[in-house]
Amino acid sequence: MTLFESASRNAAPFLHGPEFAAMSEALRAGQFGHNTATDAFETELAEFLGVPDVVSVNSCTAALHLSLLAAGVGPGDEVVVPSQTFCATVHAILMAGAQPRFADITADTQCVDSTTVRAALTPRTRAVLPVLYGGRAVDLSEIRTELTDLGITLIEDAAHAFGSRLGGELVGTTGALTCFSFGPIKNLTCIEGGALIPRDQHDADQVRALRLMGVTQSQSARIRTTDYQVDVRGWRYHLSAVHAAVGRVQLAHFPVIEEKRKALWRAYARELAAIETVNLVDVDVDHSVPFNCVVRVPDRDRIFATMRDLNIGVGVHYPPNHTQPAFLRWYRPLPVTETTATEIMSLPFHPAMTENDVHHVASVLEQAVLIPRPETL
Ligand SMILES: Cc1ncc(COP(=O)(O)O)c(C=O)c1O
Question: Which residue range forms the structural domain that includes residue 314?
Fold first, then answer.
C-alpha cells in the first residue's frame, strides 16, 4: 500500500507474513475441523492471559451465546446491554431466548458505567453485558457485590479488547465470563474466530459440549472410535484448526501488534489535540490495546461525507441498536446514546498505517471541520 492509500480503509487485518505459511501448513497436515492446532491455540491463549482455561469458538457471537447459556440466562430473563455495540451482542441475547434491556453510556468513553447499569436493572435482570468499546475495560467494581448478591452474572463483550487491562489485570482474568472476537479486523485475528473465558470448570465443561453439537469428543478423538455420543443439544461453534493456526501466529507476535496499535492511537491524539471541535473518545490507551479511534464532531454527517469524498475511510460504529427496526420492541430513551450517535465517526485505524497517514487524516479532518456550513456562507 502506498502512502495515504491505507487511509482510505477504515480497518484491515494485520497479517505480516507467517500467517500464510501457518495456514498452508495446517491444510497440508490435514488440520481441518477442531484439531490439535485448536487445542494448542487454547493452551497458548490460557498461558498468555494467565487463566486456567480458554474455550475457543468460531466467533464472538458464538462465545456470547454460550456464555449466556452457561450463566443460565433464558426465556423470561433480561440482560442489561448498551445500545452502543455491534448488533451481534443483541442477537446473542435473543438467541439465548432472553430480552435486551438497553443501558445508556457515558459520552467520553461510549461505554456503560456503574450508574447507567444500575439505572437499567429490573427484577428480571439475570445478566449484565458491558461492551468494552474500542478496547477500553469497563470498571463495574462499584456495583459488583450488588450484582453478585442479586444473582446477576457479569458477561463481558470484549470483542474489541483482547490484550487490554483493567488497572493491572488483563481483560479475561477479572472473574467475569469474557468473550473475545478474533474476526478479520480485531486486535488478534484468526480471520474468523472467538474465545470464551470460563469462570470455572463447570462453565468450561458445559460450553465445550455445547460448541460441538453436544458431542463431547474432539474430531481427532472421534477418528479413533466408531461411534460418538450426543449428550446435550448443541451448536456448530467450534474453531477450525486452520483458523487456530493463524491465531497462534498472531498471538506469538502480539507484543508487536499491541505496540503498533498504541502508537497509532497516540499519534492521532497528538494530531487531533489542536482541533477544538473534535473530541476523541477515550480508550484509556495506557491500559488498552486500542481497537479503533473514534471522534465526536458536530455536524458529523457533512464532515463524514466530505472525508469520504476525499478518500478517507471513515465509518460509524455503531448506529444504536435500540432504534433498529428489529429491536424497537425494547426501545427506551437513552439520551447520551442518542445524542452521541449523531456525533461519532471512526477514523481509519489499522496497524499498517504510518504516522504520515495519521497526519494526512488529521489534516483532512481539520479542513472538513473548518469548511463553513452552507447556511453561514
Ligand atoms: C462489540 C462487538 N461485539 C460482538 C461482535 C461479534 O464478533 P464476531 O464477528 O466475532 O461474532 C463484534 C464484531 O465486530 C463487535 O464489534
Answer: 254-376
